[in-house]
Amino acid sequence: MTKAPIPANEAERLASIKKMQILYTPAEEVFDRIARLTQKIFNVPVVFISIVADDYEWFKSQVGLDINSGPRDVSICGHIVFTGEMMVVEDAQTDERFFDNAYVCEQMNIRFYAGRPLRNTEDHIVGTLCIVDHEPRTFTEDDRQTLDAIGYWIESVFATRGLSTAMRNLLLELDEVRRNSMMDSLLNIWNRGAIEDILKREADLGLRQKTQISILMIDIDFFKKINDVHGHPVGDAALLSVVKALRNQLRSYDSVGRYGGEEFLAILPNTSQKDAVKLAERLRIAVSKASIKSGDEDVQCTISLGLASADFSTETVDINQLVVNADNALLQAKEAGRNRVEIAA
Fold first, then answer.
1. For 217, phi and psi rounded to 5 degrees?
2. Residue 307 main-chain phi, psi, to 5 deg
3. Is the predicted pLDDT of residue 106 greater than 90, yes or no?
4. Helix, strand, coil shares, percent, the chain, to 5
5. Is the confidence at residue 168, as pLDDT, over 90?
6. Can you tell me the distance from the alpha carbon of 47 to that of 60, in angstroms, rounded to the nearest whole number?
7. Mean pLDDT of 167-192
8. Boundaries of every domain in the chain
9. Residues belonging to the active site
10. What would you measure as the largest C-alpha separation in the chain, in angstroms?
11. 3 state SS of 60
12. 1-26: average pLDDT
């Protein structure tokens, strides 16, 4: 096994990654969408977008992998960070650098690998876009050009990626270990403690800037029945499906966190009640169109939503009461038949 050398500018590279505030952050639909499209284009079982940190690589998005990080010293991605060039390994078992690498060849079952370096706006190589097959395969010049084009797309997302001020401030204050502890391990979104912290920050910012804020309490309808009838694995799949639909509709500066077992809190900064209602309806419809497989059966999910809004320019806002109001509106949505949006009085 050949370990990848460390780049001469490693300290500057790691500092640049830190400024991006991308390690151990919630999943973002734009990266997931790119990963899914890459999988379809190349017809491969595994795709991942990695960020290569000091001693590990972390997957910002992955398809076909059930892990979200791995050791840097045995990864192929480390070689790409050093060379700055696309790397293609058509058969890892015959490549002298990787044939005896247990992590690559056994744990991740890599036979074919193609990786394209990803640069941030400071021109540092921060990670890779990788496609993997469990069988050897060839990679044409057209394939290289296609992978390169997708890499440019990801780099453009790096440049325009928008997080709310509250999220950015929270990320700046936390080291990577503490960030990871604020993530829901199954759903890769904020946990309750983190989303409550972000809500307080958004409220403080709204008070200073005299803006509006809306929040949504969201609950999966009849979730216990899904678990009881189809089992907990299908229940987990339902949670993941709902979160995916929510993230696909929420804006980059909105925040969503798991508030309870099947309950979520979404924070919509600088958003009026009128605009929040429109967004809530989009969320409700998106979830209702998704389905989960349980054997030969398609399991449908719906959500109920409670909406509460406040205008810091015209009223004194008690953020805790705002959450209570949204929760009461959610209860009204359930009592009115579920799969609907109710607005707090």
1. -95, 125
2. -115, 135
3. no
4. 45, 25, 30
5. no
6. 11
7. 84
8. 10-161, 166-343
9. 262
10. 69
11. strand
12. 90
* 100-109, 161-170, 180-189 — most confident range: 180-189
| Distance between CA atoms of residues 302 and 304, nearest Å | 7
CB 187 within 8 A of CB 247: no
pTM of the model: 0.74
- Counting Cβ atoms within 10 Å, is residue 75 exposed (0-12), middle (13-18) or buried (19+)? buried
Percentage with pLDDT > 90 across the chain: 73
Structure tokens at 147: 């992978």
Structural tokens at position 161: 């990626």
* Strands 341-343 vs 303-311: parallel, antiparallel or unpaired: parallel
* Helices of type H across the chain: 10-20, 29-42, 77-83, 102, 141-160, 165-173, 176-181, 192-209, 223-230, 232-249, 273-289, 319-335
Asked if residue 105 has pLDDT above 80, the reply is: no
Residue 177, pLDDT > 80, answer: no
Buried b (16+ CB within 10 A) or exposed e, 144-158: eeebeebbeebbebb
As a whole number of angstroms, the distance between CA 316 and CA 203 comes to 11
- Which of 285, 272, 164 is CA-nearest to residue 212? 272
Q: Distance between CA 342 and CA 328 in Å, rounded?
A: 9
pLDDT digits (tens, 9 = 90+) for 125-165: 999 999 999 999 999 999 999 999 999 999 999 988 877 88
Cα 181 from Cα 281, distance rounded (Å): 32
Q: Give the whole-angstrom CA distance, residue 34 versus residue 32.
A: 5
Q: Which CATH class is domain 166-343?
A: alpha beta
* CATH number listed for the domain at residues 10-161: 3.30.450.40
CB atoms within 10 A of CB 5: 12
Pair of tokens at residue 279: 């967004």
As a whole number, mean pLDDT of residues 94-102 equals 87
Task: Name residues whose C-beta falls within 8 Å of residue 178's C-beta, 6 or more positions apart in sequence.
Answer: none
pLDDT digits (tens, 9 = 90+) for 207-260: 999 999 999 999 999 999 999 999 999 999 999 999 999 998 998 889 999 999
